[in-house]
Design goal:
Elements lengths: L6 E8 L3 H9 L4 E6 L8 E2 L2 E2 L2 E5 L5 E5 L6 H10 L2 E8 L3 H10 L3 E9 L3 E7 L5 E7 L19 E8 L3 H10 L4 E8 L2 E7 L9 E5 L4 H10 L2 E9 L2 H10 L3 E9 L4 E7 L5 E6 L6
Parallel strand pairs: 1-6, 7-10, 11-14, 15-18
Antiparallel strand pairs: 1-7, 2-5, 3-4, 5-6, 8-9, 9-10, 11-15, 12-13, 13-14, 16-17, 17-18
């Protein structure tokens, strides 16, 4: 069958106290485009729990979703018991989620949460890629849609969400899998002997500048993540017109310094690394564009 059109949408962070955790992001130029709670009609409601989602955005089409316990399903609670607060999965939008179940399974993915229809909001399921990272597949139905934000940089530093970074054990194999199975294309390739970083983009890249980055660990913080969790979704990626000031503003907002902005030869840009208060890594790099 022809591969469905997978469109990068958002990153989900399991967060013990999202109402507290979001304030650091809000102090760092972010906004809340949408939030959903247990009383919201037609969202997740099971005997095990209800929904608590808060979406954050910063001047770009890629958003973050903070999700609070109690999680609805046992497989989610097992993950949280093992990993705690952290980045849990990446969500991709497709035209028909049910049609992608067999497509992903035939390509080596496994299903963590079977396909389900959630009222008049969305349909979807959760898969696990060939290295163990979670992949949510979702289609909107009816008139429901998480609101977009204006796709232009925010504040005097020109901050903008760009995408997400996933750490891989076998970089070459994972690049091939995401290109062949999810239809991604390479917009920047900095590999040598199966080490390095590769920027991937979906079919909307010309209109929506967001990327999914596959990489091998480079920082001590990234090696520590891999040692603890194995292949993992490691970082939220940003770009800024003024990286130095954006980095300083993040520290002032409560983020912890990991590595001050410096030249990253893998992508040919100045990049700084931070840790937000819940422990997730944040990368901020200078603004530049790959070929559409």
């Amino acid at each position: 069958m022809q591969a469905p059109a997978y469109q990068l949408h958002h990153l989900c962070i399991y967060e013990r106290q999202p109402r507290d955790a979001m304030w650091n992001w809000l102090r760092w130029y972010h906004a809340i485009p949408a939030y959903y709670w247990e009383g919201y009609a037609d969202m997740h409601h099971t005997g095990e729990g209800g929904v608590d989602y808060t979406f954050l955005a910063c001047g770009g089409p890629f958003q973050m979703q903070l999700e609070a316990p109690p999680y609805q399903f046992e497989y989610e609670r097992r993950w949280f018991a093992e990993h705690g607060s952290g980045i849990n999965h990446i969500c991709w939008i497709v035209p028909n989620a049910l049609e992608t179940v067999d497509h992903l399974q035939s390509a080596g993915a496994t299903v963590a949460m079977p396909y389900e229809e959630f009222g008049g909001t969305y349909n979807g399921f959760v898969a696990i890629d060939t290295e163990g990272r979670w992949v949510e597949i979702m289609e909107y139905v009816g008139g429901f849609k998480t609101p977009d934000v204006e796709f232009r940089p925010v504040g005097h530093v020109g901050l903008q969400t760009l995408g997400v970074v996933q750490l891989c054990r076998d970089l070459n194999t994972q690049v091939d899998w995401y290109c062949e199975v999810l239809g991604q294309r390479i917009v920047h390739d900095a590999r040598s002997d199966n080490e390095g970083v590769v920027y991937l983009a979906d079919h909307t890249y010309g209109d929506r500048q967001c990327v999914s980055v596959l990489a091998t660990p480079a920082l001590d913080a990234e090696h520590a993540l891999m040692d603890r969790h194995g292949p993992v979704i490691s970082s939220v990626l940003y770009q800024a017109a003024d990286v130095t000031q954006a980095y300083a503003d993040a520290v002032a907002a409560g983020f912890e310094e990991i590595s001050a902005p410096a030249q990253d030869d893998r992508i040919g840009s100045i990049t700084g690394y931070l840790r937000e208060p819940s422990g997730n890594i944040v990368q901020v790099r200078e603004r530049f564009e790959f070929a559409a």
